């Protein structure tokens, strides 16, 4: 497997920061002739207060050249030894992929006719289709979240087909009302469901010519809750009284020690 040194004619810069998840987008080149540059650690001169990262170059079919990628090394590793150890694992995993011929392939996207025709202009099926296209670029938890939002829309539609060209912002409001009244979702959950569908619709709109995104609507106001408040006012008063007593007790003890035994 050949690889290019710095300054090679094919170097193109397109930095992607993040964890090692973007290497999952790579596919294997069975011919084994794609150039690359091995992963190395950029440790910011050993400064633990700065973000370290692993840098490598892989072939990108869209750019038709090498593209630089960066993988962050978590700053949760507080010692140099621990951070270097973590970086070495990332480097080993990345270099293994590069040496096996993995590279970034041009995403195969269904054209407008095939998506809309295949899904018969059914909004639910179109969103399902676009999720199946992009799911390899998402974390499993994110895929589940988007699928849950689609399932809610599917349950709402029932036997009725939601024609994508006829689905308006008023239909979105009706769907949101369904989430609140029929499913008993909170305002926050309903807002999140609409946001997730809005994101999927944007992915779909990148691929086909469809109407303006109706899911881009104003959020509901969320009820104020004390669920995530660590201390109530009463708790804070009790803590304040405790520390006042503790301070007084320590002051008296200190004076007794200064005065000597009784």
TrEMBL record:
One of its GO terms (molecular function) is DNA binding. Keywords: DNA integration, DNA-binding. InterPro entries: CB, DNA_brk_join_enz, Integrase_recombinase_N, Integrase_SAM-like_N. One of its GO terms (biological process) is DNA integration. This is Core-binding (CB) domain-containing protein. It comes from Dyadobacter frigoris. Residues 117-205 form the Core-binding (CB) domain.
């Amino acid at each position: 497997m050949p690889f290019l040194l710095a300054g090679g004619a094919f170097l193109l810069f397109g930095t992607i920061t993040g964890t090692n998840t973007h290497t999952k987008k790579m596919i294997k080149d069975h011919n084994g002739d794609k150039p690359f540059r091995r992963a190395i650690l950029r440790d910011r001169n050993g400064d633990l207060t700065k973000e370290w990262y692993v840098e490598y170059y892989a072939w990108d079919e869209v750019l038709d050249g090498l593209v630089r990628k960066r993988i962050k090394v978590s700053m949760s590793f507080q010692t140099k030894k621990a951070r270097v150890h973590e970086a070495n694992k990332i480097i080993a995993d990345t270099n293994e992929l590069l040496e096996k011929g993995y590279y970034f392939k041009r995403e195969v996207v269904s054209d407008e006719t095939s998506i809309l025709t295949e899904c018969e202009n059914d909004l639910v099926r179109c969103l399902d289709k676009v999720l199946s296209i992009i799911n390899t670029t998402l974390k499993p938890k994110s895929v589940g979240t988007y699928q849950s939002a689609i399932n809610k829309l599917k349950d709402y539609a029932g036997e009725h087909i939601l024609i994508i060209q006829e689905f308006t912002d008023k239909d979105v409001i009706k769907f949101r009302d369904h989430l609140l009244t029929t499913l008993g979702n909170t305002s926050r959950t309903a807002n999140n469901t609409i946001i997730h569908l809005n994101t999927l619709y944007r992915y779909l709109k990148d691929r086909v010519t469809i109407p303006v995104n109706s899911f881009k609507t104003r959020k509901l106001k969320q009820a104020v809750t004390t669920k995530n408040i660590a201390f109530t006012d009463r708790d804070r008063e009790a803590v304040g009284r405790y520390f006042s007593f503790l301070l007084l007790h320590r002051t008296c003890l200190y004076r007794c020690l200064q005065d000597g035994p009784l």
